[in-house]
Structures are given as structure tokens and as C-alpha cells.
Amino acid sequence: MANFKLTVSDIKGKSITKELKEGDANPLMGLVIGAETDAAIVGLAGKLKITGGSDKSGVPMRGDLHGMARKRVLLSKGIGLQDTERGLRKRKLIRGNTVSDEIFQVNCKYDGEIKDEAPPAETEAAAEDVPKKEAKKE
């Protein structure tokens, strides 16, 4: 079964990472880059738009390569190629635009704003319970 690390970024630039296990990951299977899905799978209200991802080897997904397969493609610019010099083309290993069970990380864009989580109450209570050092009596 598929396990994904889902990286969700909001409109303000904040991002969170959630790990989706077998049953929760099924709604993402078969979606392509640019497709929208419900954000309830990560506990948010709204829509998620898939913007990319990579497999366990770090091979990036590319939107203009259809399917799930890994292919060696001649690239001149874009995802999967760092700019080196003008006119240079390189053959690089790229994965297709469809989410499959071989994908490890999926990048998404959230249409709302991600709320900050409150600090756990346990850490505040533990700080108060620490006894203060008593002054030495002479």
C-alpha cells in the first residue's frame, strides 16, 4: 500500500507536513499534477491542489510527462534541471505527472490559511512544577 508525506503550503507561505498511511492515502492515487482534491484528508476545510512531488529516490515529478513511469528525458529548462548555461540541454531522469504507490512525497497548495497550533499545555505545567533553589542558610 501507499504511504505519502504530504507537504501542504498555504497562500501566506506557511507549510506543514503530514504523513498519510495506507487508507488515508487512497484518495490521492491516480490524481495528476494540477488536480484538486478535498483538504479533509489532512484535517483542513477547503481544497488542495497537487503541485508536484518526488519518489523515494528523489526523482521529481514533472507535469508535462504523462503517466506514472520514470523516463530519461532531454530537458532544456524547468523542473528537474538547474540552469547552467544558455542553450544547454541535458538528459535527466524524471517521473510522470500521475500519483502512484511509488511516489514518496506529494506537494500541495491549500486555498486557505493554515492556523498556528497552540503549544502543548504539558510543557507549561512542567515548567511551574520545577522547585526553586532554596537560599543557603548560614
Topology record:
Layout: E1 4-9, E2 15-20, H1 22-25, E3 36-38, E4 47-55, E5 70-75, E6 90-95, E7 103-110, H2 121-129
Parallel strand pairs: 1-7
Antiparallel strand pairs: 1-2, 3-4, 4-7, 5-6
How much of the sequence is in beta strands? 25-35%
Which H/E pattern describes the elements? Answer: EEHEEEEEH
The coarse silhouette is globular
Span between termini: 69 Å
Question: Helix/strand/pairing class, anyone?
Answer: mainly beta
Radius of gyration: 22 Å
Counting DSSP E segments of at least 2 residues, the number of strands comes to: 7
Helix content: under 10%
Describe the structure.
The chain is mainly beta and 138 residues long. It has a domain at 4-66 and 95-114. It has 2 helices and 7 strands. It has helices at 22-25, 121-129; strands at 4-9, 15-20, 36-38, 47-55, 70-75, 90-95, 103-110. It has a 5-stranded mixed β-sheet with strand order 2-1-7-4-3. A hairpin with an 8-residue loop joins β3 and β4. The longest helix is centred in the last third of the chain and has 9 residues, at 121-129.
In short:
With 138 residues, this protein is mainly β. The protein has two helices and seven strands, in the order E-E-H-E-E-E-E-E-H. It has a domain at 4-66 and 95-114.
Structural descriptors:
138 residues; mainly beta; five-stranded mixed beta sheet; two-stranded antiparallel sheet
